[in-house]
């Protein structure tokens, strides 16, 4: 069995590398999208709010696989070459961005109304208030659920295997298809995911307040 | 364009049975998840260290590995140990076990949220422990985590899409097949998206209705929140009578 | 007679189905210290919040520093020219005392950092907290926090200062330090509108006391008139309950 492990490991580690790359890129993408959506949502402008609501409702109510397929088939349909990597990052960012938008929104709305009022009286503009007074105060509330979403994102990279991306899940499945031995291979794959996710989920649990109950 | 939608009408039956299958998997798996979640949550407060440890390992394994992997382990992994099953069973098991772990944490948080003072009061009044759990803790815990429970249900619904990987003819898998045949990808996936949105919104709505009826005080999940950029009419209206 | 700093003309305000202000008319002269007293729900805080632009009235006219607050979108013009001290302090928890005081100077009034710091330190000196300029709100007592809040409001050099139950959230022994700052402001001739339960302040420092009851001005006059010789039976009732202890 140890020979099996030794021969499978390099391929799996390669897949893990792709997984991590995908994750980091999608983390950046989804955070930016989520922040944008949250700002639009809380801006008070009706049009902006509607767009943000549509975005979050749509992508929190559909499976990420469908979003990925839309992008994947869409690119092919319009005759472009599919860069799996780009498609994966795009799909994951859009999907998680919707969830992250809600996390940011909760954080923004948790800042006491008095902070907005006093800033208004002091003459600060809305943008200044948001950047200098409100956003800094969301850090404590937002960080644990945000990292929790990142954790989900890392696990969701496995779904990109279904459109052919050779990340960890895909590599593992390819080996099983070729030589069988699912118990050992899946065990290894589990271990690798576990190694990446466990520290994060510990951190989240440690810093989590009452977000479980919402 | 409309010609193409008409083409898909041929597949209306297929879509409907796929939707029905998705619903079945969702509901049965959720029942399993609730059961597992409750058992696991209670196990966490067991006096036996082994029981606590098993529950802990269960939850940690599920949380730190992708659900797709869990599906594959059950469908492809178990046969190598001699256990074979249909895609349906594997799907229900995998999703049930997966969401069960998350529900376990949700339930645990809910149970812990009930103020200890109530347990003490009940104890002093002579109410037996089991009865305290059923009549005092459970109702309040359920109320506290009800929205989270509905969210988990919706997550499970969306998770059924991954069962297309083990060739279960649920919504996503069916859409992929029909798309391969007709190449009408926008229409196919739009239909499926609408069905998912419909299901998840119905679950949400039912959850809200149930929340209002089942609990005292009624659980009203208001979707509107106001923030204080002033001065706006609705800002002042959200302050209940001001603090004069 | 110089033009009033604040003019309220038949101002009405409802929250939902409750009418909180019923045709309030009130003038405040420059340099005057006006104290609003009354029971909870009498509308006194609402009057203050309408004067400072935080609430919009449903009807009537409000003129603050010659700015018509009742006209659409013009309320913004008084921002940075009036100061408001809140019951809950509303300090920025992620900034030091000096940071709190200078934020608006730098961002809204576009002062340089050096200039803002100079003004900020002067304001903190004014309230006796210059040595605490680098402390965060969490490291300050309630009374100190409220004094920082006053310094923050003063730093923008407002023409009018509003106080919304500034001492109600403070432990009793910390009330005095804040009251002292408010008294010194009054002595310097600042136009002040104060909502408070501190009858001692109303008695000794107010130029005029307004007693509000269920959305109307039941009685107003000098402190002597109100406290020694109240005419309206509602005023008498209120005072007898409040002054008991």
Description:
The complex is a heterotrimer of chains A (214), B (244) and C (245). Chain A has 214 residues and is mostly helical. Chain A is built from 8 helices and no strands. Chain A has a single domain (2-213), classed as MetI-like fold (Orthogonal Bundle), CATH 1.10.3720.10. The termini of chain A are far apart. Chain B has one domain (2-241): MetI-like (MetI-like fold, Orthogonal Bundle), CATH 1.10.3720. In chain C, 49% of the residues are buried. In chain C, the strands form 2 sheets. In chain C, strands 6-7-8-3-9-10 form a 6-stranded mixed sheet, with helices on both faces. In chain C, strand 1 and strand 2 (18-28) form a beta hairpin. The interface between A and B is large, with 54 and 53 residues.
Quick recap:
The complex is a heterotrimer of chains A (214), B (244) and C (245). Chain A has eight helices and no strands.
How is this fold's topology laid out?
The complex is a heterotrimer of chains A (214), B (244) and C (245).
Chain A: H1 2-42, H2 46-60, H3 64-77, H4 84-110, H5 113-122, H6 126-156, H7 168-179, H8 182-207
Helix pairs in contact in A: 1-2, 1-4, 1-7, 1-8, 2-4, 3-4, 4-6, 5-6, 6-8, 7-8
Chain B: H1 2-9, H2 12-43, H3 49-63, H4 67-77, H5 87-113, H6 116-124, H7 129-159, H8 171-182, H9 185-214, H10 233-238
Helix pairs in contact in B: 2-5, 2-8, 3-5, 4-5, 5-7, 6-7, 7-9, 8-9
Chain C: E1 6-15, E2 18-28, E3 33-38, H1 44-51, E4 59-64, E5 67-68, E6 82-85, H2 97-107, H3 113-126, H4 142-155, E7 160-164, H5 172-187, E8 191-195, H6 199-205, E9 208-213, E10 216-221, H7 223-228, H8 233-242
Parallel strand pairs in C: 3-8, 3-9, 6-7, 7-8
Antiparallel strand pairs in C: 1-2, 1-4, 4-5, 9-10
Structure characteristics:
A: 214 residues; mainly alpha; MetI-like fold; 8 helices; B: mainly alpha; 10 helices
Question: Which range does the strand content of chain B fall in?
Answer: under 5%
Strand content of chain C: 15-25%
CATH topology label of chain B: MetI-like fold
pLDDT averaged residue by residue of chain B = 84
Helical content class of chain C: 25-40%
Largest interface: A-B, 54 and 53 residues
> Looking at the structure, what is the overall shape of chain B?
flat
Report the strand count of chain B: 0
Class from helix and strand fractions of chain C: alpha/beta
Q: Kindly give the count of domains of chain B.
A: 1
- Give the number of helices of chain B: 10
Structural class of chain B: mainly alpha
């Amino acid at each position: 069995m140890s020979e099996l492990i030794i021969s499978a490991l390099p391929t799996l580690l390669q897949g893990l590398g792709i997984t991590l790359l995908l994750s980091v890129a999608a983390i950046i993408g989804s955070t930016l999208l989520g922040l944008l959506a949250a700002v639009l949502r809380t801006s008070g402008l009706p049009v902006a709010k509607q767009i943000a609501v549509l975005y979050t409702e749509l992508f929190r109510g559909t499976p990420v696989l469908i979003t990925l397929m839309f992008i994947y088939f869409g690119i092919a349909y319009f005759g472009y070459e599919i860069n799996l990597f780009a498609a994966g990052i795009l799909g994951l960012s859009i999907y998680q961005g919707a969830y992250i938008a809600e996390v940011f929104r909760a954080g923004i709305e948790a800042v006491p109304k008095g902070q907005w009022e006093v800033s208004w009286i002091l003459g600060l503009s809305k943008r200044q208030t948001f950047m200098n007074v409100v956003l800094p105060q969301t850090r404590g509330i937002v960080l644990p659920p945000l990292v929790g979403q990142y954790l989900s994102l890392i696990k969701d990279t496995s779904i990109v295997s279904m459109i052919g991306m050779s990340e960890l899940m895909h590599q593992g499945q390819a080996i099983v298809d070729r030589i069988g031995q699912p118990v050992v291979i899946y065990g290894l794959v589990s271990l690798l995911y576990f190694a990446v996710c466990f520290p994060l989920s510990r951190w989240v649990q440690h810093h989590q307040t009452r977000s479980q109950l919402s | 364009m409309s010609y193409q939608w008409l083409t898909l009408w041929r597949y209306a039956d297929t879509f409907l049975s796929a939707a029905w299958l998705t619903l079945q998997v969702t509901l049965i798996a959720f029942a399993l998840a609730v059961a597992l979640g409750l058992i696991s949550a209670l196990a966490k407060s067991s006096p036996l260290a082994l029981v606590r440890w098993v529950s802990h390992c269960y939850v940690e394994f599920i949380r730190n590995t992708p659900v797709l992997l869990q599906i594959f382990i059950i469908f492809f992994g178990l046969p190598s140990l001699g256990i074979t099953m249909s895609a349906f069973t594997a799907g229900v098991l995998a999703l049930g076990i997966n969401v069960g772990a998350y529900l376990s944490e949700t339930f645990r948080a809910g149970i812990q949220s009930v103020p200890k003072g109530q347990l003490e009061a009940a104890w002093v009044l002579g109410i037996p422990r089991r009865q305290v759990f059923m009549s005092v803790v459970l109702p309040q815990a359920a109320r506290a985590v009800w929205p989270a429970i509905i969210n988990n249900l919706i997550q499970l619904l969306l998770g059924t899409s991954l069962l297309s990987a083990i060739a279960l003819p649920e919504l996503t898998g069916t859409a992929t097949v029909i798309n391969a045949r007709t190449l009408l990808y926008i229409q196919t996936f739009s239909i499926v998206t609408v069905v998912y949105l419909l299901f998840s919104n119905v679950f949400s709505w039912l959850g809200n209705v149930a929340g209002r009826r089942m609990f005292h005080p009624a659980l009203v999940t208001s979707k509107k929140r106001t923030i204080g950029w002033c001065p706006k009419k609705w800002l002042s209206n959200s302050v209940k009578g001001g603090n004069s | 007679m110089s033009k009033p700093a604040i003019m309220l003309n038949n101002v009405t305000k409802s929250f939902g189905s409750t009418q909180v202000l019923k045709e309030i008319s009130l003038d405040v002269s420059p340099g005057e210290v006006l104290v609003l007293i009354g029971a909870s729900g009498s509308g006194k805080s609402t009057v203050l919040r309408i004067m400072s632009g935080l609430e919009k009235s449903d009807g009537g006219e409000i003129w603050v520093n010659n700015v018509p607050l009742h006209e659409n979108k013009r309320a913004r013009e008084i921002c940075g020219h009036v100061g408001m001290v809140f019951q809950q302090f509303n300090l920025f928890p992620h900034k030091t005392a000096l940071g709190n005081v200078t934020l608006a100077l730098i961002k809204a009034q576009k002062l340089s950092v050096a200039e803002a710091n100079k003004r900020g330190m002067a304001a903190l000196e004014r309230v006796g907290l210059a040595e605490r300029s680098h402390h965060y709100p969490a490291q300050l007592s309630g009374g100190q926090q409220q004094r920082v809040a006053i310094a923050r409001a003063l730093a923008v050099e407002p023409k009018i200062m509003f106080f919304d139950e500034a001492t109600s959230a403070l432990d009793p022994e910390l009330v005095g330090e804040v009251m002292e700052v408010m008294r010194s402001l009054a002595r310097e001739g600042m136009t002040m509108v104060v909502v408070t339960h501190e009858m001692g302040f109303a008695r000794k420092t107010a130029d005029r006391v307004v007693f509000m009851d269920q959305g109307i001005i039941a009685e107003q006059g000098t402190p002597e008139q109100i406290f020694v010789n109240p005419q309206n039976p509602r005023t008498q009732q209120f005072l007898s309950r409040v002054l008991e202890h």
